[in-house]
Each structure stands twice: as C-alpha cells, then as structure tokens.
Amino acid sequence: MAIYLVQHGKSLSKEQDPGKGISKNGVLETERIAEVAAGYKVEVKRIIHSGKKRAFQTAEIFSRHLASVEGVEKGDGLKALDDVIVWSQKLDPNLSLMLVGHLPFMENSPVF
After folding, report:
1. Under 8 Å CB-to-CB from 9, ≥6 apart: which residues?
2. pLDDT tens string 64-103
3. What three-state secondary structure class fits 36?
C-alpha cells in the first residue's frame, strides 16, 4: 500500500474565480510535479479529491500523467477541517491511492 497526499495546486482568488480553481502557475507547477511522479513510476489505483474545483483540477492533472487504473473520484472527508482519523480507518492495505485535498488536513495526517 502507498498513500500519496497531495495539496491542490495554487488557486485563484475568489475575485478572479468564485470557485477558486487553480491558477496558470498552479497548473504549470502541478504538471511539473506530476511529470516527476510519472518519471519515478508512481503507481496509484485511484485518485480521490475533496470535490472542490482546485482539488478536482489537481487530481485530473495527476491522473493524466499517472494513468490511474480507476481514475479520479470525489471522496468525502478530505476538506480542510475534516478529521484525518476517519480516513485512516477507511484505508485498504491492498490499494495504492492518492488523496488530493487541502491544508490543514494534509499536514495533520501523521496517522497515515
């Protein structure tokens, strides 16, 4: 089992995009990181995102580069203030996956 925790790419302000999608620089940075991951032959069966626009966009970029078997899906419990313990109890030891979400959730994940 491998769990990859990914914070979404840099987002636009609410004034620029009320949905706070990722910026052009955020897309470029995410593309570069995804390319590096692909170069290291990172394999994930599934990429799960929080459902917010910026997390979905980030997940899609990684999915294109890593060719995840089951693709991208929205998952509950990945928003900024959600409890990481809930996710730790849902993990399948036979499944490699990537979780795309937000701070502080991603930095509060020592249980993984």
Report:
1. 22, 23, 26, 27, 29, 30, 54, 57, 58, 61
2. 999 777 889 999 888 877 777 787 788 888 888 899 988 8
3. helix
Whole-angstrom distance, CA of residue 30 vs CA of residue 97: 17
Structure-block tokens of residue 12: 């636009």
CATH number at residue 39: 3.40.50.1240
* Tens-place pLDDT, residues 24-66: 999 999 999 999 999 999 999 999 999 999 999 999 999 999 9
How many domains, in total, are found in the chain? 1
Domain that holds residue 40: 3-108
Query: Which of 13, 35, 15, 11 has its CA nearest to residue 25?
Result: 11
Token pair of 87 as six digits: 């996710």
pTM: 0.88
